[in-house]
Amino acid sequence: MSTATIAALLAEIVGEENVSTETADRLTHSFDATQQQFLPEVVVYAESTEQVRDVVRLAASRGIPILPRGAGSGFTGGSLPVAGGIVLVLTRMNRILEIDTDNLLAVVEPGVVTADLQRAVEKHGLFYPPDPASKDFCTLGGNIAECAGGPRCVKYGVTRDYVLGLEVVTPQGEVITTGGRTLKNVVGYDLTRLFVGSEGTLGVVTKIILKLLPLPEAKKTMLVQFATIEGAAQAVAEIIRARIVPTTLEFLDGTTVNCVRPISPIPLPEECQALLIIEVDGDRELIERQAQRIAEVIAPLGVVGTRVAQSAAESELIWQVRRSVSPSLRRVNPDKFNEDIVVPRSKVPEMIRLLEKLAARHGVPIVNFGHAGDGNIHVNVMVDLRQPGMKERMDEIMDGVFAAAISLKGSISGEHGIGTAKSRYLAMELDGATIAAMKAIKRALDPDNIMNPGKIFADGAAR
Predict the structure, then answer these.
(1) Which helix (H) or strand (E) holds 368?
(2) CATH number 1.20.210.10 given to 96-214
(3) Do the domains at 3-89 and 218-327 have one common CATH topology?
């Protein structure tokens, strides 16, 4: 069946204005943050569950690959139409359907931007904690697909910890519901958790029920400079040992500090070779005591400077240091490979040292920062792909990065997912029986392999 015929059939479902085979629209939805590119045949913009259902039914009846897509901001290729077919764009399903202040929940569509929901619930004195770096433009449907995290997850957890229920269109075009509006629900299999983090390979999420929390009264932000990464890591352990769980515990290693130093809004002396951004929230009097206690327990660990924000403006200044990282990296080399590995938080210094050895062995800078409280390290390999043989060397470097994480009982992905970029490393972390069980689930729900095919599994299929 020709693309024109498929487009005409899709137009009968969503209207001609919501279907495009134009090159510009296909290009717009052909790439993500990996900068890889795969052109779909058709782009469809859905505005309701019924439209999603009928579009999926059409794709299923013709065996056409279909890819649900939000903002396309992922780092592992999860939203790339590697098999062509239909890209089903959900950004127009962007309504906050309900904010239930009595039961502390929100009901939203998948195209709602994460930060928009946060601002909306905060007006009611409520709080939605997951805060991926892309929260100002990423969508909640994408957060569900990848089980997004962010700096606050050390205290509050990740996306899956806030999903009470889902409405999902299956690969056969059936509408199912999982979970519900209650905190307790043990009726049947926990399909909600199955769909969260499945990268759009098992169905299309069309409605989300999210748990909310009361908005903390206040927060306090600290920037602490250390002489060594070991001191910073030990500080994390001592803070937790003091029975304080901060909202965030962000770290920058020595290489990152050196990159940021020339443009940092806060002076970073040469003896600073690691830093922590620590934030606590809650009752105003409590966080004052916590900040004081943190300063006490970390003082013997090679602290070379501490700045405690006394206002919202000072807090923003501290976070500008963290936000300066990405702009500063291009000064090192033009091309960046960004991975997000996880190790037990006590192993962060050892992982950093292994990465330093890897960088020295291959003669490339590796810049590391991330979420020290949960051991989630954003590893940035900075190279110049114009150099002969660099693409081939990158495979060896990435092998070394992931092997080091696994050797420390860690994981190859903390919040970016697997997609296409990490599929060949899946067997490094999971044994054959575990992968076979995952493929069996994929086959059971999507026997024709039309729903976002080519993701997660190295062979590109669930066979």
Answers:
(1) strand 366-371
(2) no
(3) no
**Domain spanning 334-407, CATH architecture:** 2-Layer Sandwich (3.30)
Report the topology of domain 218-327. Answer: Alpha-Beta Plaits (3.30.70)
Is pLDDT above 80 for 86?
yes
**What percentage of the chain carries pLDDT values higher than 90?**
91
**Edge-to-edge strand list for the sheet holding 96-100:** 96-100, 105-108, 204-211, 163-169, 175-179
Beta carbons within 10 angstroms of residue 122's beta carbon: 13
User: What digits encode the pLDDT tens for the residues 249-258?
Assistant: 999 999 999 9
Q: Does domain 3-89 have CATH number 3.20.20.80?
A: no
Q: Kind and range of the H or E element at 221?
A: strand 218-226
Burial category of 81 from C-beta neighbours within 10 Å (exposed 0-12, middle 13-18, buried 19 and up) = buried
Query: CA–CA separation, 304 vs 302, rounded Å?
Result: 6
Q: Which among 42, 95, 50 is positioned nearest to 69, based on CA atoms?
A: 42
pTM recorded for the entire structure: 0.94
**pLDDT mean over 300-307:** 96
pLDDT at residue 391, as a whole number:
85
